[in-house]
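Quick check before the chapter quiz. The format below is the same one you will see on the exam, so make sure you can read both the input and the output lines.
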Amino acid sequence: MSPGDRHIAAGSWYSSMPATFPMILGADVVGRVEQVGEGSERFSVGDEVFGQLLIPPLGSTGTYAEYVAAPEGSPLARIPAGVDPAVAAAVPTTGMTGLGIVESLEPLSGKSVLIVGAGGGVGSFATQFAVEAGARVIANVRAANEERMRSYSVTEIVDHTAAPLPEQVERAHPDGIDVLVDLASDPKGVRGTRGAGAHGWNGAHDALRREH
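Here is the expected output.
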């Protein structure tokens, strides 16, 4: 169960999106189209699709089920050739979250971007999107994830288990960094990093939070 599903089950989204009961949880989906409605042209029976069905009212298109009915215009796409369905299933929420964070910070070309928690689900996508946007990405990960981060073409890697993160960053960047994306800790832990415009993901409410 994803953090978002846990918060929905706890009622955290009650004020922002209507719900229906009984509620079926689950937003990310991968599967094969078994039936299409009359006049539907976007998909055909047999198509393998993936996407995110976080559609109001909450619970009406929950994906913790054997079958789910969704409107034709739902955020779904065909699974690209060669992509394992299990991999496709892990993309929608984490990928869209990472993309949303990076797009909200653009333009990033030439800017130094410290991503705390770059090795996680959202962090992995945010790191790749930030690199594609032209940022000089400083990836905060443990040593076990260093090779993967290198494959994403990050500029620098810092391991917070080797020394306190703010100390490492300030030592390497005495004039400060441009952007901080904190996906893994209390922002107070890195707020002191000089020159950083903080941008974090508040998992408790699945909402973006900016701090300056």
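If your answer matched, good. The beta strands are 28-32, 48-52, 76-78, 112-116, 136-140, 156-158, 179-182, 197-202, 207-211.
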